[in-house]
User: Which sequence fits this backbone?
């Protein structure tokens, strides 16, 4: 077989794989604008009815509001913890460092079901069940390792002489942190904010166990699905999809831009 | 140099990392305004010494005094006034060239924005890169980064400038050019330069004094010429590399007996009779002739290689015991000699240039151990 023929087959196969992955999302978006009640072809005509229904539904609006609030707070706290952990790893050598790093990266490797259950039983001891604070605490645990991983990658590119150079030029430890380490990590910090916000915004299991009556949007969606299959789900799905993909896209742009710009 | 006090004194300064000794207790007095080079092979302790002086590491023992009185042994680096030019340049990639130079003026000198700018541009101009002020660091070549690094350190107008192998990343031409530029800056500014390098020609070309280190110990401190002509021990002689070293034993009549013959000596530190001795013969003092000349200090050897460097020719001979002898001659002095590899030739030197050292002196195998 010729090389060009192989290329064409591989290209076709790649397109098929992407179609397969994207088809459900595309169908959700397409049918969210469908005037018909049931997602069937042919299309019943363009309509914003389901978006109107969703945006006027108080439970959905409150869920969305809670999810956005939680995501905002979680992204800030998780990125701060992630930065601090990554910097400790970069800056210091100490016994038990391997254990420290293993602990710091542990949460996403625990099945979320277990994590959610554990948090439910622990939070009930300290009266956090049913509060947004509880959801935030749970999401911070889950999200911090992602922030750490991103910032750690960035710090690995920082010349070990850079901090020394700042001290040598009269900057104290704090001034060095403010004027050298943070500016150097800025792209990674912003992408960590975006990624952790996206993870928190989408997270269902912990929120389901912990949120109680303070339903976040994913919990609300499941509750709606259990009641009835309504095209409103398509509209909510499209909104969630757009928010998440925007955050991930922002993170992606920030991460790739820094790497082709700086060769140290 | 008649300063009342040395600008910086290391008093029995030592550094260990765990069980590894990086620097044995070391004394060094640095005079105001001198250009002093610390050199030695990698791992000899030269960079450790520089980092201790900058305060980037703290000494395990000993004291460090500024102006003979001010103890800075435990002073954090940001309170010392010794900017450094790094081997990696260590420029801040997220700042422009001008902002890099302003960094120390802001952090250390606390100048207001306008004064910082003026001073930064002034120094960029002195280093011939004023037109690059608003560029970002990754747009610069290696040589340009080097100049930014020097400008950033000198803009603080310090008493002491530390340089850690600043030229090692440059190509040969640019290195020579920067050498003369550093030398010019040193004489113009009149400040102390403390220069670390593994390259002996670089150190000899620029420094007033060189400190030769090996295995964390100072081997010799002196003017380049002194180190060159009168190495303190065998390690220094080998490191400087300008001599042929003939190993033998000391005779009771004060000569060195080697497999090639017994040779007279005039200078050096002769070991006791019958002890191992090394005779150093400077490469530029050897005369070559086709047949025996009847000189007192003469050996025969076989030509190994002949190499032209400018107007000089470096000839390597292999002597009867396998020792390689280095001879440096002007082209005109060797006209008419057969220098094809394998040819036999006689080499002689005047007795007064022979320099003797105990054979096992220096570096790892010290006499005192």
Assistant:
């Amino acid at each position: 077989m010729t090389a060009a023929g192989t290329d064409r087959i591989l290209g076709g196969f790649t397109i098929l794989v992407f179609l397969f992955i994207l088809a459900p999302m595309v169908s959700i978006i397409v049918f969210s604008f469908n005037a018909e009640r049931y997602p069937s072809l042919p299309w019943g005509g363009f309509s914003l009815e389901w978006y109107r229904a969703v945006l006027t539904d108080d439970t959905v609006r409150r869920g969305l509001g809670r999810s956005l609030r939680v995501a905002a707070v979680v992204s800030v706290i998780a990125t701060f913890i992630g930065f601090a952990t990554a910097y400790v790893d970069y800056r210091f050598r100490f016994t038990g460092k391997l254990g420290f790093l293993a602990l710091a990266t542990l949460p996403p490797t625990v099945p979320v079901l277990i994590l959610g259950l554990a948090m439910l039983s622990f939070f009930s001891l300290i009266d956090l069940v049913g509060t947004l604070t509880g959801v935030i605490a749970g999401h911070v645990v889950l999200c911090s390792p992602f922030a750490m991983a991103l910032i750690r990658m960035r710090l690995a590119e920082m010349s070990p002489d850079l901090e020394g150079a700042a001290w040598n030029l009269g900057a104290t430890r704090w001034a060095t942190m403010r004027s050298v380490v943070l500016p150097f990590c800025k792209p990674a910090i912003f992408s960590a904010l975006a990624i952790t916000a996206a993870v928190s915004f989408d997270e269902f299991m912990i929120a389901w166990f912990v949120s109680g009556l303070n339903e976040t949007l994913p919990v609300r969606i499941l509750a709606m699905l259990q009641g009835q299959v309504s095209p409103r789900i398509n509209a909510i799905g499209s909104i969630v999809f757009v928010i998440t993909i925007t955050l991930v896209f922002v993170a992606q742009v920030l991460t790739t831009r820094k790497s082709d710009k700086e060769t140290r | 140099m008649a300063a009342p006090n040395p600008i910086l004194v290391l008093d029995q300064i030592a550094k260990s990392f765990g069980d590894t000794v990086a620097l044995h207790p070391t004394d060094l007095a640095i005079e105001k305004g001198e250009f002093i080079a610390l050199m030695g092979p990698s791992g000899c302790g030269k960079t450790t010494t520089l980092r201790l002086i900058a305060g980037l590491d703290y000494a395990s023992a000993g004291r460090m005094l500024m102006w003979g009185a001010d103890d800075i042994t435990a002073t954090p680096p940001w309170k010392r006034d010794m900017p450094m030019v790094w081997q990696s340049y260590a420029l801040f990639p997220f700042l422009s060239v001008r902002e890099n130079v302003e960094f120390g003026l802001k952090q250390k000198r606390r100048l207001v924005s306008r004064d910082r700018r003026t001073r930064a541009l002034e120094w960029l101009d002195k280093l011939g890169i004023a037109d690059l002020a608003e560029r970002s660091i990754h747009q610069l070549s290696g040589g340009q980064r080097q100049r930014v690094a020097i400008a950033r350190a000198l803009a603080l107008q310090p008493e002491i400038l530390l340089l850690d192998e600043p030229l090692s990343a440059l190509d040969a031409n640019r290195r020579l050019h920067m050498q003369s530029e550093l030398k010019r800056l040193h004489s113009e500014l009149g400040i102390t330069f403390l220069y670390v390098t593994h390259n002996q020609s670089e150190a000899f070309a620029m420094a007033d004094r060189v400190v030769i280190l090996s295995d964390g110990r100072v081997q010799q401190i002196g003017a380049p010429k002194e180190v060159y002509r009168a190495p303190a021990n065998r390690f220094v002689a080998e490191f400087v590399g300008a001599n042929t070293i003939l190993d033998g034993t000391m005779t009771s009549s004060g000569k060195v007996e080697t497999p090639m013959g017994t040779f007279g000596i005039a200078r050096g530190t002769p070991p006791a009779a019958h002890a191992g001795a090394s005779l150093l013969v400077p490469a530029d003092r050897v005369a070559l002739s086709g047949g025996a000349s009847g000189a007192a200090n003469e050996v025969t050897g076989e030509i190994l290689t002949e190499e032209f460097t400018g107007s000089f020719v470096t000839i390597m001979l292999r002597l009867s015991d396998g020792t390689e002898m280095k001879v440096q001659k002007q082209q005109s002095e060797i006209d008419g000699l057969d220098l094809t590899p394998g040819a036999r030739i006689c080499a002689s030197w005047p007795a007064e240039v022979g320099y003797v050292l105990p054979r096992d002196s220096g570096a790892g195998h010290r006499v005192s151990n």
Confidence is low (pLDDT under 50) at residues 364-369 of chain B. The helical segments of chain B are 46-54, 97-107, 113-126, 142-154, 172-189, 200-206, 224-229, 234-240. Chain B has two domains: 6-228, 244-360. The CA atoms of residues 342 and 362 of chain B lie 34 Å apart.
